[in-house]
């Protein structure tokens, strides 16, 4: 049973790498060269047949200009809750339809909303704590 879940994670990783490669408009050969891995090995990763090391994932992420953490999550190395905001920012950064200025503005807005939600959550917790103390 564990093998199936690992294979599922590896397949999901491969699909994600392929999608990111295509969005970056890179051929398999180009990405393999940029990431310093062989064409067949990268092809096996994309098809979900191989589970690359963290080092190889980092090389692929660098070549694709995405966070290594997003690949670590898909490979099952990191928990997705650890990097949620980073993935949103990566998605904004990779969208070719946006200008650099628009990307910067969106990231700033996103960070301000997330910050407000964190602050609101902290305020709510504090109010609930004080309400319990008063009762």
Describe the model:
Helix 4 packs across helix 5. The chain has a domain at about 1-80: Orthogonal Bundle (434 Repressor (Amino-terminal Domain)). The protein contains 7 helices and no strands. With about 140 residues, it is mainly α. It has helices at about 1-25, 30-35, 40-45, 55-65, 70-75, 85-95, 100-135. The N and C termini lie far apart (about 50 Å). The longest helix is centred in the C-terminal third of the chain and has 35 residues, at about 100-135.
SSE topology sketch:
Elements: H1 2-23, H2 28-35, H3 39-46, H4 54-64, H5 68-75, H6 84-94, H7 100-134
Helix pairs in contact: 2-3, 2-4, 4-5, 6-7
Pfam family, one: HTH_3
Organism: Aeromicrobium phragmitis
Protein name: XRE family transcriptional regulator
Q: What are the salient characteristics of this protein?
A:
434 Repressor (Amino-terminal Domain), Lambda_DNA-bd_dom_sf, DNA-binding transcription factor activity, 135 residues, TransReg_Diox_bact_type, DNA binding, mainly alpha, Cro/C1-type_HTH, disordered N terminus, flat
Helix content: over 70%
Determine the CATH superfamily of the domain at 2-79: lambda repressor-like DNA-binding domains
CATH architecture of the domain at 2-79: Orthogonal Bundle
Task: Write the H/E string, N to C.
Answer: HHHHHHH
Report the strand count: 0
Radius of gyration, in Å, reads 19 Å
Poorly predicted segments: 1-8
Question: Structural class given helices, strands, pairing?
Answer: mainly alpha
What is the mean predicted local confidence, pLDDT?
81
CATH class of the domain at 2-79: Mainly Alpha
Distance between the termini: 51 Å
Instruction: Tell me the strand percentage band.
Output: under 5%
3D shape: flat
Largest sheet: none
- Stated plainly, the CATH topology of the domain at 2-79 is called 434 Repressor (Amino-terminal Domain)
Provide a count of the helices: 7
């Amino acid at each position: 049973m564990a093998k199936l879940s690992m294979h599922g994670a590896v397949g999901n990783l491969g699909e994600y790498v392929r999608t990111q490669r295509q969005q970056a408009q890179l051929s398999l050969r180009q990405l393999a060269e940029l990431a310093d891995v062989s064409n067949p090995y990268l092809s096996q990763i994309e098809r979900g047949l191989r589970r690359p090391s963290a080092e190889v994932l980092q090389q692929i992420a660098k070549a694709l200009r995405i966070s290594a953490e997003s690949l670590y999550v898909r490979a099952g190395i990191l928990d997705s809750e650890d990097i949620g905001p980073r993935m949103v920012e990566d998605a904004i950064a990779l969208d070719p339809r946006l200008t650099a200025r628009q990307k910067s503005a969106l990231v700033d807005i996103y960070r301000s909303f997330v910050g407000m939600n964190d602050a609101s959550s902290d305020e709510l917790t504090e109010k609930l704590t004080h309400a319990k103390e008063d009762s």
